[in-house]
Amino acid sequence: MPRVSGYDHGTGRHCRSAALRNLSTFYGWGYDEPACFGFGAGLASTYAANPETGWKVWSGVAPWLERAFFERLEISHVEREGDEWDSAWDDVTEHLDADEPVLLFVDSAALHYTDADHDPPHAVVAVGYDDDGVVVSDGTVDDLQELSHAELRDAWAIDRTVSMQNRHLVVTRGRVRQDRRTAATRAVRETAEYMLHPLDAARTTRGPGEEGLSALRSFVDDLPGLADSDEAVERADDARRGISSHGVDAAFRGLYADAIEDLESWSHAGGDKGERMRDVARDWRQVGELLGDACAADDPDEQAATLTEAGSVLGDVADREEAFFEDVERETR
Prior knowledge:
Helices cover 47% and strands 17% of the residues. The protein is an alpha+beta fold. The chain folds into 2 domains: 15-173, Cysteine proteinases (Cathepsin B, Chain A), CATH 3.90.70; 180-331, no CATH class. The chain has a 6-stranded antiparallel β-sheet, with helices on both faces. A two-stranded antiparallel sheet has the order 1-2. A hairpin with a 6-residue loop joins strand 1 and strand 2 (56-61). Helix 2 crosses helix 3. The model has no long low-confidence stretch (mean pLDDT 92).
């Protein structure tokens, strides 16, 4: 298939931040994956009901990652969603004909080549096409992948936990117009404001008690009680996947530790933020492991004790995250 010239495929730690990093390489912006995640204020804490199951599920990644990245760095782009298939496909191929890669938001469950274990959206970059289908760059796998029109049509129509129809984004002018220091300072401050004051944050998607540290503390409070649920294993496994799945590295806290080291070198935030967040990430990994142990436990008392321990560890994590973001907020005022 004909492909966008000069595009280099690379893998990463998460599909969405890896896609941004690959676009950064293509356009010469010079940002690694953690910096892309940080500029997009990608760290989050949401705890809201999954419409498929009815119970609450925790997530550590922001839904606005890509949009915030392009807006904060003032990179000209166009994002479209809701077009019918023919119109959306014509738009994608027009950009590919112009040697412009296109960011697509799809459902990984509909892709033949991956068993990525996370809720949609999954981000891939379209880099070529012909009459039979499209070539995509997916940062979770080593090689470029070919999708038929039927497979793309199915994956591009998301109706699982979130609803999206043929959403795609393309850079229209590959120039960064915001200076790096200003963008970095705003990015770390926005993440702190969101975690501490989600109802007043510039970007928010959920209701009271469902975002930021308040959401994390609700998650902490609910963990021990999962043992009393008829769906204890399923709910504990959903919680584990939110922390540990798809190589996200400790609820994205490991990725954010690297991100804030990039950003604090350019912003007003200083000190040992990276190491502090790595310590937090290690405890998030422990929580994920404990939830896995709870799912595998045959004895109800052992399961209950393991979930209680997970809640205790995560309660300490919430306190440390609060202190961390209070320091960031104070230093970037």
